[in-house]
Description:
The complex is a heterodimer of chains A (447) and B (122).
Chain A: H1 3-17, H2 24-43, H3 48-59, H4 62-72, H5 74-79, H6 90-120, H7 123-145, H8 150-169, H9 177-198, H10 206-243, H11 249-275, H12 282-307, H13 311-314, H14 316-339, H15 348-378, H16 382-409, H17 415-443
Chain B: H1 5-22, E1 26-27, H2 28-38, H3 50-59, E2 63-69, E3 75-81, H4 83-108, H5 117-121
Helix pairs in contact in B: 1-4
Amino acid sequence: MSSGLEEQVAQWRGFVRRRAVLSADDVAELEEHLRGQVDDLRAVGLSDDEAFLVAVSRMGSMDALSREFAAVHSERLWKQLVLSDEDRGPAARAASRRRTWLVLALAVGAALTFRAALWLMDTDVVWRAGAGLVLPWLAGSFCLRHRVPRGVVLTAAAGWVALLVVLLVSPFEAGGDTLVLAAAHAPVVWWLLAGAFYTGGRWRDPARRMDFVRFTGEWAVYYFLLAAGGGALIGLSLAVFGAVGVDASPVLLSWVLPCGAAGATVVAAWLVEAKQSVVENMAPVLARVFSPLVLALLVALLVAFALDPRVLGVDRDLLVLMTVVLVVVLGLWLYTVSARRPEAPVGAWDRGLVALLLAAVAVDLVVLVAMAGRIAELGLTPNRAAALGLNLLLLGDLVGSAWLAIGFARQARPFSALERWQTSSLPVLGAWAALVAVAWGPLFSWT
Amino acid sequence: MHIDKDLVAASATPLVLGILAEEESSYGYAILKRVRELSDGRMEWTDGMLYPLLHRLERQGLVGASWGTSEEGRRRKHYALTEAGRRQLAERQSQWAVVSQTLARVWDAPGAAGPLSGPVLA
């Protein structure tokens, strides 16, 4: 191939590479095609320039092609939702600045709402309803990004308010188990309702649901970083003011801390969206680091149970802790699924994940048997009923995942089946959380 | 001849699967050349669109892909039919057989005003 032609192909490659949705491999594949076509056209007598022009025009419009690629590789798109400002005109830059201010205003709104709630209500009321007061501001920030259909807004808002009212007016016994359970389960429901806003109303679409899962993981990472940084700063400020003889704790602990904790929910979400294209997604990286360690933990637990089955009956916290471990396993699995390139070949990693899932299923069965024993012996309490139900749900989810993962590792099933299973389990978990938050109080007479 | 784009889209998957069934493995440009050859150049695809289709089939597990090297020493992605792809192809073939048989019957029926019956009988 002549040097002039090489230069044209290199220019074309540079042009195609700017399409964020095309991976380096895709570009290489298209370039190989272009070169094959150019060679054939030159062989039938076209000049270099003519051959190049015909080959490029046969390739078709890059916009249309990018859209097709985006439809197939939707997970790649998640990272590229935010275009860098250089790619856009002054009007878009102004809109982006305006949105930044709006997001900051929403963060301040979240902070003040939470502070006002602390001021107006009892602390334990704020504990059970706090998330329901702060997360609407987060949902509001999603609305800046996507146009959300009115029907979805109204339905989600109605569910939101209904849950909030139930939690606020219910006559929970102070410090009772049903109160703690409601406070722990309600945020899950509100978070998933916020997800309906995040998906721009297309919450039925598995790909959009997976985007929300990705968002949740990144949000948690950013929130943790903000909380750690903020906590360190507050501690430092307390020490510094203490050294000069000023007690800063009233301001720092009753204003800065709650306002910061509430405002950070919106700020973390904004950071996730703004930094998507800059940083590699963290949650899947963490999932990859911790999956082997959690597998080791599960195997160690199974060995410990096998050596001395009595340990299961000794400490009642053990079963709760085991449930937490299983939720962690499900989270690790979910994030590994969300980050895996579906077209990558099956490898040792996938088989390792099957081992993780099978170990989790085994542990869950042991936990369920122990739980059933406790319930038969000591009766049903709110905590035991909630733990039993959650473990049954987890067992179903894990068994289904393991079944599909084995099929995938044996190449009998496509990866998309796994994604669909995971994303369709989300509403089930949300419905369960809503049930515990709303029905456990009356079922167990608010104790 | 211009062929309606919906028809092209509908036939693309069985056509690609069928071409991959002919050989052990193939690559994008060769598949496209085969389409032109089989249709005597009457079925014109936009070249680039073949690749999203191949990637979709790969995701669905109907074809497997591997990177190799071309005779010119360039990196080339090869595609081969999987077992699931073979089953899918068989199913598509029987579906298309029904469609084309039905069309043939209505167009060949006496009194039909199709492009085949009219001029041929006249």
